[in-house]
Amino acid sequence: MKQRIKLGVVCLTRNTFDYVAADELYQGILKDLSALEQIDLCALEQPIMEPDEAIAAGKTFAAEQVDGIAVISGTFHLGHLLLEIKKYADKPVLLWGLPELPYNGGKIRLNSVCGVNLNASNLVKSGITDFTYTIGSKIDEDWVDAIRMIRALKDSHIGILGYRAHGFFNVGVDELAMYHKFGTIVDHFELTDLWNQPVEKDTVEKYAAVMRGAFDASAVSSEKQDKIAELAAKFRAFAEEKNLTAIAVRCWPEFAGGYGIAPCAAMSIVQSDDLLLSCEGDLDCAITMIAHRAAGAKTPFMADLSQVNPEDNSALMWHCGVAPCNLTDGVCACTLDTYHAGGRGVTAGFVMKSGAINMARFDSINGHYRMFNRNGEAVPMQKELTGTYAKVRFEEPMQSVLDTVIYSGLAHHVSMVYGDYSKPLSIFARLKGLEVL
User: Fold this and answer.
1) 194-228 in b/e burial notation, b at 16+ Cβ within 10 A?
2) From-to residues of CATH 3.40.50.10940 in the chain
3) CATH for 5-139, among 3.40.50.1950, 3.40.50.920, 3.40.980.10, 3.40.50.10940?
4) In Å, how far are 314, 365, 401 from 305, measured between CA atoms?
5) Is 387 exposed, middle or buried (CB count within 10 Å of its CB: 0-12, 13-18, 19+)?
6) Which residues are within 8 A (CB) of 430 and not within 5 positions of it... i.e. 6 or more apart?
7) Contact between 402 and 410 (Cβ < 8 Å)
8) What is the DSSP string of 340-392?
9) What gap in Å lies between CA 173 and CA 185, rounded to an integer?
10) Is the peptide bond before 300 cis (omega within 30 degrees of 0)?
């Protein structure tokens, strides 16, 4: 389900243009907006023309704590209006222009696009860039989804269990830089806090049933199967008790020795139940998963750009066996395997389903953030490996994708989801001032 947000909506007009027609259009827009999912509206019922009305609107939006403001240029209007609103309610803005109406007696009726131009120029020359624009009769739902991402990250609380994985310096973060950019709070816990987490028997049995239904577990002892189900229940209970939106896990090298199994298979199972988990203590991948889910993506997961084949423009997006078990292709045998950590590395093994995918990463470097964001298509392949993986063909040449990853120093994990979320991510990057790779 998409993140719930509150949107401010206002229509700006001027009586030298057809403000009556603009009001009629605005009332229809308000009716359309009321049908959007997971949206609370804080809308001014009538268009405004004067600076004192704009001040009142800004104060209303501030008091209502809206997450973003759709500013409709019903007609051309005074430049004061948006500046006064923004002064009191400093939230991301959608500059919304309406299509011009048929001319009436040789006179332009709305001049709405010029109003958008005026507002954009005033903002940019004021040093304000947290806006995008749209021209049309419907709201830009990609902007709405970007606002959902901002809200979700601001509300998020992430736990890191242990630390980053041994030697993975490139996934380390400045937690206060993350807070400054996104509002995200990170809390640290020891691995033993998870291992000692009490669980309900019913929850363990629930995940045991998921495991039996999803996997051929014949290669794994019954003792290890019990530990997988118990660990899945521990992840769920720990997240709920600590009120965590996502958990980044130092899943090796200590985990298998200290708990008896590596967490991969348990993570696969509980992630299919909509719990966000990132491997190897990767906090930046965790926040990218949060953003993906806020826009409606189901079961984001972490993947590596593992193998490349420029000749057929493809890459193998692989990880050791942690992708949500609901993402199997429905053709391969889904197995539990013990191929690493001296037989304690219990992992999921399957080929992921075909379909359009988006992969992204909010990646920190020297205290600032940038974003990687690419679309592709997962295509059918045979199961030839352990772990969870998909063969992906990108929308741009594979060599170009690889050049970007390597020369930018992007960390080696991405959040991968099925569907196209590139546009809301791009808008999010603009609103939050992220460098786009």
Assistant:
1) bbebebeeebbebbbebbeebbebeebeeebbebb
2) 5-139
3) 3.40.50.10940
4) 10, 19, 10
5) buried
6) 129, 130, 132
7) no
8) SGGGT--EEEEEBPPEEEEEEEEEEETTEEEEEEEEEEEE-----SSSEEEEE
9) 12
10) no
Number of residues in the chain:
437
Cβ contacts of residue 5 below 8 Å, gap of 6+? 38, 39, 40, 67, 68, 144, 147, 148, 151
Q: For the whole prediction, is pTM greater than 0.70? A: yes
pLDDT digits (tens, 9 = 90+) for 174-211: 999 999 999 999 999 999 999 999 999 999 999 999 99
Rounded CA separation 37/268 (Å): 29
Contact by Cβ (8 Å): 279, 138: no
CATH homologous superfamily of 156-436:
L-fucose Isomerase; Chain A, domain 2 (3.40.275.10)
- 96-120, pLDDT tens digit by residue? 999 999 998 889 999 999 999 999 9
Q: Residue 296: which pLDDT band, with cuts at 50, 70 and 90?
A: very high
Contact predicate 357/392, CB 8 Å: yes
